[in-house]
Amino acid sequence: MTGKNPATTPNESSTGSPKPGEPVFVALGFLRRTHGIRGELIMDVLTDFPERLRPNRPVYLGEEHIPHRLGTVRMANKVMLVSIKGYENPEEAARFRNCHVYVRVDQLPRLPEDSYYYHELIGIHVVDEQGKGLGVLESIIETGANDVYVVRAGDGSEVLLPAIADVVLTVDLERAEMVVRPQQWD
């Protein structure tokens, strides 16, 4: 998943290369059950870029991240139908039921400037304009209008910040710091 950074600071590190503390793999999909007689599986898509899932793409299946290659890939309504090379019938493909489909972080495409993958933002330190620490970005809630950053303060309290330009001023991945202007409610 990705997020558009509302701040205007350039993204200096969007190569997708793993850095210390980053995951080595990210999930692109979740395989549910087999479909049809050719070994296809129904996959819930967990990426903003499903068009990049193509036949012969290397993927890693399950929590053990076992390497495989995609066979067929096609959209069907809100899910994707995929097959795994070498598993040509439903009985063989069924072994992958309830598995996540991963790719390596260093295989992710470069994002446009001021855009970040969610995993790049999780764990970043959040400070206000005066440099006062607000906490660590713990999770991101996707809403219809804009994302909401969930920041966990040192005392365990939660701060919710809308991911909009008026609130998120800068993101510096090298320093692992986000500078924000929390909204004031009158």
Description:
The protein starts with a strand and ends in a 6-residue tail after the last strand. The strands form 3 sheets. The chain has a 6-stranded antiparallel β-barrel with strand order 2-3-6-5-4-7. Strands 12-11-10-9-14-13 form a 6-stranded mixed sheet, with no helix packed on it. It is mainly beta. It is 4% helix and 44% strand.
Main sheet record: 6 strands, antiparallel, barrel
The portion of residues assigned to helices is under 10%
Query: What Rg, in angstroms, do the CA atoms define?
Result: 19 Å
Count the domains: 2
Uncertain parts:
4-18
Q: What is the fold's blueprint, element by element?
A:
Blueprint: E1 2-4, E2 25-35, E3 40-45, E4 58-61, E5 66-76, E6 79-84, H1 90-93, E7 99-104, E8 115-117, H2 118-121, E9 125-128, E10 133-141, E11 148-152, E12 158-162, E13 168-172, E14 177-180
